[in-house]
Design a protein that fits this description.
89 residues, five-stranded antiparallel beta sheet, 5 strands
Length: 89
């Protein structure tokens, strides 16, 4: 499963929003991956997420794969929408 998001946080995916995403992803068994340009990162790794250098206005794709993939993608989507990180597109 996957969804595309436009990052609207003024600082992009730096420390605070990256930490929120990692905290939301960590409880799930599913593999959760952030895709940005031609790069991918494990969404459970704050270093991996921050290393992507996602700037405001960028488009990312979050993909999930595993037994609880639907729940994981919904939880990530909720955090992105409610914490001012971005919007689904």
């Amino acid at each position: 499963m996957e969804k595309m998001f436009k990052i609207t946080a003024p600082e992009g995916l730096h420390a605070r929003p990256a930490a929120l995403l990692v905290s939301a992803a960590t409880p799930f068994k599913a593999d959760i991956t952030l895709h940005f340009k031609e790069k991918t990162a494990n969404l459970k790794s704050i270093i991996g997420v921050m290393a992507q250098g996602v700037a405001p206005g960028s488009t990312i794709v979050i993909s999930t794969q595993g037994s609880d993939e639907a729940e994981a993608l919904q939880a990530i989507s909720d955090v992105i929408a409610t914490k001012g990180i971005g919007e689904e597109c």
